[in-house]
């Protein structure tokens, strides 16, 4: 099935694939997973190939590529390895809003190190659909004061700055959400030790607390918060697509080689039908994710449709990793086999923006509309 | 006054639950972190006879039937998988073949030690190229005088690194293979030529140890052959039911713990200022979890009772294992939805159960193999009852 990609897009896809095939080593990946280490070296290599910050404007040092290109890169990274792929693809998570809407100073101090692989971002946000806290910000003269604690912030241990979605409060009343960049060295910030968790073993989660943290109004980003959500949701969708494809590759490869009862297990109808079901879900997922990327490049996708795409891709990835593990049987449960961490990573990644229930509430509210 | 059957089981359940909550639960996170059950806990489990639940009383066991066995396994599984897993071999695959097909001398020698937990057993059937297709094993047992000489490699063997005795399934007649050429042996760890190969690290099941076992010219006295030569696969297959019922009981135990945890989390946590339990979708998730759990528990104890009446229940056992293991997979997903991000954290236990539960659909016969077992019986006209 062709996906009607342009020559440039195919070039970027192939460059990423060459990179993952050439540089990702199974033993090294397993070591990083066991030791819970961030793949620094791979990130630097990815930056050299301009695979990070692909969509940033040229003025910020980016490639000004479209979302389709960005999706292709993320897909290929996660296809080869879910844990390393997510670590690399989330290195610039949310940074689009700074690259496109931040002041010159912010771009210089935040985006440049990112493109060299010397820094990663950390997104401090409430769950999607939550309008209360957990971080609040209040004007005090020209400055803003931030307060609140957010658990499970990805990359908070190594990121030099946080992209914060805060609830704006004025005279005790909520005035919507604001986007701000808060540097880690600012007084009043505490970052906990890494939290022991289910998956994503190369990217740590930390609890981040803001206690009377004072930032300048210059650190505010004027973009609507929705812009940030859309970029993050599309990135996640691409991660799911890549993980799903990767899990499919592993299952197919195993089913073609593994013999039981004097036959390749792919020759049993029970298994071959599973492969067909997996292929169907995978292709549907790819269509949905590419369509969303194209819509975003055309500037016309609503938040609820982006959420729908993410939830669709998420369900596909859950299904694909689960079935892939099942096809592997006992070896699939062993950590030497990559499908083991593909499976855990999806379970962990899906909680990144909060619960499915509340995301579906946003979709249904929009689809059903206002009732009188 | 004698207790009715159900009162007796209920009393047993309460005793085990109290023990599990007071003595085991406080150590569950330690077991997970240390990958080991503390020795003082094992001592308590031995003292209570947990290693010999299914072993007949005359050989030092408690002589429990399937209903009692499932009750104990379910309650233990509500704490940490390892507590249930450590006793499962001595009560199932590690002793059943001796109980069912062993001779008097074998029973007298091995069963009391297994029942007391003095010895830990392992069941060595699976090989790298013989998983679901158990009949294609290549480990050989060649008869030389009154000794069999074992050669071959087994893998994914639960308890292997700590086992004192292995039940080994090996080929005695390569020409006959799975059709009468496979035999079962009792092999002690001190017999020459046994080595433990790679230890398998897995997604879950911390505190339970699995590894390869390699036999190199290991001599086994002919007296340690279980049953008759060539009947090894039949001996093995007669013993799988305990293991499968154990998996079904574990599934029910896990799901029951998850339901309690999810319900109490929903009652104590909020989203956007509203308690989670007031969201209709959360209410429905809990309803689905409880309904499936109830169904799995019902077929489990119905089947156990059927086995206790000595009726053929192979098909029902397969159904309990298949449905139970898939049920807990769905229940854990729903619990994760309620817990959200918190579900991924070590401290909340849900993530551990998610990892542990994933093996239930694979070991002791995969879900696919169970569908084949059930399907073939159905085609022959058999129906569950």
Outline the structure in words.
The complex is a heterodimer of chains A (372) and B (385). With 372 residues, chain A is an alpha+beta fold. Helix content of chain A is 50%, strand content 17%. Chain A has twelve helices and ten strands. Chain A has helices at 7-23, 26-34, 40-48, 67-80, 82-89, 96-101, 104-115, 225-257, 269-297, 303-328, 339-349, 356-368; strands spanning 122-124, 136-140, 143-154, 161-170, 173-183, 189-191, 205-216, 220-221, 259-260, 263-264. In chain A, the strands form two sheets. In chain A, strands 1, 2, 3, 4, 5, 6, 7 and 8 form an eight-stranded mixed sheet that branches. In chain A, strands 9-10 form a two-stranded antiparallel sheet. In chain A, strand 4 and strand 5 (173-183) form a beta hairpin. In chain A, helix 4 (67-80) packs antiparallel against helix 5 (82-89) and helix 8 packs parallel to helix 10. The mean pLDDT of chain A is 95. Chain B has 385 residues and is of the alpha+beta class. Chain B contains 13 helices and ten strands. Chain B has a four-stranded mixed sheet with strand order 1-4-5-8. In chain B, a hairpin with a 2-residue loop joins strand 9 (270-271) and strand 10 (274-275). In chain B, helix 11 crosses helix 13. The two termini of chain B are 33 Å apart. The mean pLDDT of chain B is 95. At the A-B interface, strand 9, helix 11 and helix 12 of A face helix 11, helix 12 and helix 13 of B.
Could you give a quick summary of the protein structure above?
The complex is a heterodimer of chains A (372) and B (385). Chain A is an alpha+beta fold. In chain A, 50% of the residues lie in helices and 17% in strands.
Which helices and strands appear, and what pairs or packs with what?
The complex is a heterodimer of chains A (372) and B (385).
Chain A: H1 7-23, H2 26-34, H3 40-48, H4 67-80, H5 82-89, H6 96-101, H7 104-115, E1 122-124, E2 136-140, E3 143-154, E4 161-170, E5 173-183, E6 189-191, E7 205-216, E8 220-221, H8 225-257, E9 259-260, E10 263-264, H9 269-297, H10 303-328, H11 339-349, H12 356-368
Parallel strand pairs in A: 1-4, 2-4
Antiparallel strand pairs in A: 2-3, 3-7, 4-5, 5-8, 6-7, 9-10
Helix pairs in contact in A: 1-4, 4-5, 4-8, 5-8, 8-9, 8-10, 8-11, 9-10, 10-11, 10-12
Chain B: H1 5-24, H2 28-34, H3 39-47, H4 66-77, H5 81-91, H6 96-101, H7 104-116, E1 121-124, E2 140-144, E3 147-158, E4 165-171, E5 182-188, E6 194-199, E7 210-221, E8 225-226, H8 232-238, H9 240-268, E9 270-271, E10 274-275, H10 280-308, H11 314-339, H12 350-357, H13 367-379
Parallel strand pairs in B: 1-4
Antiparallel strand pairs in B: 2-3, 3-7, 4-5, 5-8, 6-7, 9-10
